[in-house]
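Hello,

Our lab assistant flagged a job as stuck in the queue for most of the afternoon. It eventually completed. Since we weren't sure the result was trustworthy after the delay, we are filing this so someone can double-check. Below is the sequence as submitted and the structure that was eventually returned. Let us know if re-running is recommended.
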Amino acid sequence: MKATSTLRSAVAPLENFSLTMVGLLGFSFGVQGDPVVSNMPQDAELAAVFRSHRDSFEKLAAMGMEDYGSVSLLSKDLLSQRPLTGGLEELTPQRRDEYLRLLTSIKPALVMGIDFYRISFSFSRGGIGLSIGPSWMKGIAYLPHGSERVGTIVRNLDQVPDGDHVYLVPIEATWYTIYVASD
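-- returned structure --
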């Protein structure tokens, strides 16, 4: 009994030290350790991409509004896979080709998400596909019904916001820089 007590008192400081180190390392490598976060595009870069590809963004937004309900996610990879799934099979080949042409004219790996309140274009993301832990996305969004039901307007998104939420920075009219964080 005395040996067990002595062993516990000797191990306790090591347990405390281990827990402290795990906590510190987890905090240190949390957001900063994600290489994509450190390479996240700045708001000004995204606004410049929007302005230089305005026609493509506006055409994609119009197409997305028309196809809402049939399809919710588009990318070069999804449009190229066979068999087509997720509603993409309902689009005509010409429509799929037009989505592919417009998306890749902006950025080859651009991902477009469509829902009732927003059409988002993901330029940078992380944590996606993990079974545990947070995920995030930063990009450009078209908000056809305004920002009130989508997220919180902030001054900029160059620093990673805290919390599980959607943050928006106006670019112009119904176009925004968007950051989505979910835990």
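-- support follow-up --
The delay was a queue issue, not a problem with the job. The result is valid. The chain is about 40% helix and 20% strand. Confidence is low (pLDDT under 50) at residues 3-36.
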